[in-house]
Amino acid sequence: MVKSSNLGYPRIGEDRQWKKALEAFWAGKIEESEFHQQLQEIRLNHLRKQQEQGIDLIPVGDFSYYDQVLDTAVMFGIVPKRFSYDGGTVPLSVYYGIARGTKEATASEMTKWFNTNYHYIVPEFDNTTPVLTENKPLIAYREAKEKLGIAGKPVILGPLTFLKLSKGYTAAQFDTWLNILIPLYVEVLEQLAAEGVQWVQIDEPSLVTKVSNEDIQRLNKIYSAFTAAVPNLNILLQTYFEAVDHYEDIVRLPVQGIGLDFVHGLQGNLQAIQTLGFPTDKVLGAGVIDGRGIWKADVREKLALLDVLAAIVPADRLLVQSSCSLLHVPVTVKRETKLQPELLGALAFADEKLEEIQLLAKALTDGKESVSSELEQCDAAIHAIKHSAARNRSDIQQTVAAVSSDSPARKQPFAQRNIAQAAKWNLPIFPTTTIGSFPQSAEVRKARQLWRKGEWKEEQYANFIREQIDLWIKLQEEIGIDVLVHGEFERTDMVEFFGEKLGGFAFTQHGWVQSYGSRCVKPPVIYGDVAFVAPMTVEETKYAQSKTNRPVKGMLTGPITIMNWSFVRDDISREQIAYQLAYALRLEVEALEQAGIGMIQVDEPAVREGLPLKAEDQAAYLAWAVKAFRLTTSTVQDTTQIHTHMCYCEFHDMIDSIEAMDADVISIETSRSHGELIHSFEQNTYELGIGLGVYDIHSPRVPQVEEMTTMIDRALRVLDPKLFWINPDCGLKTRGYEETVASLRNMVEATRIARDKYTA
Length: 760
Description:
It is built from 27 helices and 21 strands. By secondary structure, it is an alpha/beta fold. The protein folds into two domains: about 325 residues, TIM Barrel; about 350 residues, TIM Barrel (Alpha-Beta Barrel). The longest helix has 23 residues.
């Protein structure tokens, strides 16, 4: 009998109950006891769903109060010393302080989880002695068994991956810290084994990235120690997001099961298992259902793949499972009522993917004839979306193929453009600006809701937006900002806004996923060919410019970010999708310029997120990502200044590509990892305009002037003062009015100090 398994379930709830509970607790609207109770109800409901679906190995411990990497850190008492923590179980005040910051201490760095759009809190090793504070997987296991009778599969982030995702140590100290962590993991596993746990899922996604020979030795040491300590506990070593490196070494590790991704790592993993075989004493976790995409699986295709695997691995040693945790997809399709039939029929969210897993397990166990009706339904759904009019627009396909065949470039190099722009704008040294959005108050959100419901007419809503623009244009002038923005009050989300105005997009009603912390996004669905319909941002930007003599930036989201933050079609390449988006956005850039907007920001915060995990694939991706950006921005006049913005990422390995984008000014979100990025510029020259974020907008605290001047001074050690801009880390949409104004006043004061210092 073939068994089914799941690697993780979305924590947010069908109605984002999780997000609402967190934010109510942070706001002091509910007590801690009620908060725990609400989250338990959400957690048990998720387990109950998987139980009712019939999943054999149900994950427990995958639920989190914020982030699974942070959970691992606090489980081992790895708390930065700047937070008040005296040992024992880490209280929620410290837990959320690490994630969000406090009045006294800055938050820990946040960065992307491999190549997804989820972001995790980076653990900091600052000579704190790790110790097991509480066995979180054991607590989760006990709860599932006592409340629902589920003997779950505890999920633990493996020690090698955990340490690789952390900071605060040198390369020479890696093994020292690993040797400290291994006994703590053993302690966790021993307690699980004593409780009667049968299977433990230990996630080691770092094994799909570059793995050294030293790492293989470390893995043998880690899992030999685990097996020696708990010989009767079954360990499923789980990988995902790509094919594993060192396949032969990994499948020989002393564990009872290996989980492989046969979706995003299909080619490499399948070739390895067909060529090298699979150990006869291990279980294979076959990740055949896409845990990151939203499209219905081609069941016939998946069954053919499983037949190939079943010829190598006996049925009683085969687990049918998702390719990764379902954290990255929405909860269920069942509540979507407004999508076109051919699109709705082609979708599968978390609950539907559980059904697919069970369907495949049933077909392998009972034969394909047992699921014949389901196969026919799947065939019909896939045929309908493939032949839809939205996916077969020859006009768009031909135009984009023609424009993308060239190598787009600005008319003059940056040095000449910079002279022309300086003469036109006459900005002071260290120009100040913001990244684009300003606080969206309850009043703004309510107005948008009334307009969407039809209770406000178009004119009434437009007047309201203009009032907000008026307010913030005056505020920016009063504060002393040099380059202004209109505030983006008409926009719900930086990707959704554009998707709603472009052809080829669809929008779900409840398709939310977690981005970081309580921040949930509802990614658009790119299901057809992307088409420009009409100008999208000109009206508001032109109005804002009419209210001031200072330059106002036009604000667009770039093609790669729109693609990476959307659920994209899987029938053409991502490169083709990027070029379609780039051409549509080029028409918007040209419309802004024609309307008299001479500074245009095309944000690309997610370029790094899409970087392939395999080094051999990265150059090609960066080449077409850069090309897409230049395709969007290259047709403007020399005096039109192109800005871009990038968010929390490791940039040191793509400085050349950032420079190749040829934006006149780039702002980079760096306040949580300022020193690391500055170090990159110490090793690499950068000769275009640049602004390194001088304060963290994700924290509610108001930064002090001295903090920002320190950041400015550090940056100017390696960057040209004549090309340096000063700005916050990111957009200010999620911040409150008072803290935003106070923070910007401090930023302008820090700029004044810097101007006095560097022009004296």
